[in-house]
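Reading group handout, session on sequence-to-structure problems. Before we discuss, look at one worked example. The prompt was deliberately terse, the way you'd type it at a terminal:

> structure Translation elongation factor P/YeiP central domain-containing protein

The input record follows.
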Amino acid sequence: MMNMYNNITKSLKINCWPSFIPLKIFQNNCFITHKKYISVLANELRSGNIFFHNDKYCEVTEQRQIKQGRLATTNMIYFIDLSTLKSSSVKFACQAKVDKIEPIKVNVRIQYTDKQKNIVVCLDQNYEDVEIPMSIFGVSEEHLEPGMEISVFKHDDKIIKVNLPSSLLATLRKK
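And the output record:
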């Protein structure tokens, strides 16, 4: 059974064991189920990683280990809450585990913005409509133009982050 699992993972070019739950056998059918997150120690988080904390998606901006006297080491994580785009911080114990998210990146092209519904309608590579709430864009929503390409990060078919093109970021920094 494990040999079949190895063959499947090799054919899919998957070498990451922690991201998969072992085979589940149901009525002589084998299923591989993909985990939604990876549980890692808090000191393994690096800048740019996305983790799930208090039912919110957070992006790490900085990670420090703090040691005071003879006390155990604590990990101070500075992050941006992706739902509100506000920065915050949290302390974790030295052996605390967090749920690290590995989102799927999809490139989309903006079609139009619907200000009544507060959404931006985009097309993906398969020409399917993708509706993105304007709240994810923050202050850049008024600078969005049709035809602009953006990168969308999804987890569980939920949009958690949007990367804007560098030309738009440059104009926003000037203001």
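Points for discussion. First: The domain at 38-101 is CATH 2.30.30.30 (SH3 type barrels.). Second: Residues 10-21 have pLDDT under 50 and may be disordered.
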